[in-house]
Here is the input.
Amino acid sequence: MDINPSAISVPKYRLSFERVIFMAYGITPNRILRAYQENNIPCSSLVGDDLDKVLDWDKEERNPQKGSYAIRVRDCVESDEVLKSLSTKDVKVKDIKTETLNERLIHGLKVWSEGKGHLDIVGETNCAGSRYQEYVLYVKSEDGGISIGFCNTGYSSAYFGAREVISL
Here is the structure.
């Protein structure tokens, strides 16, 4: 997709939030997954093949259907250490902005395209900024590719964590 980064406001740098992720207007999970597949990265989903219909677009923390934008995230393979073991409910109570499914997919594709491998080798990223019905979506590495699943918003474990974002 065409995107002009100079036309998008980037959140100010904050210590440890080195990576900037640009989200193009109109980008959808299905389109991102096609990019994974075109690069021979296996993708599986426990929520069906049409992720565009799975997302509750009205509940997205940030929505590329409304315009292009940029976020900042920590540049780490696993989800944020400080957010591990927090459920989606915990993250929401603390009012922490986190990656959406779209953002996590773009983040992972960008890291992979830089030759740095996959994100979430050991754990799973809780995409607390996205919803699938009353559930939350997550992404993890699996069999040389990625897997998308869902769980209850109260679920937590030592391997399950969100990725905090700085957004405008």
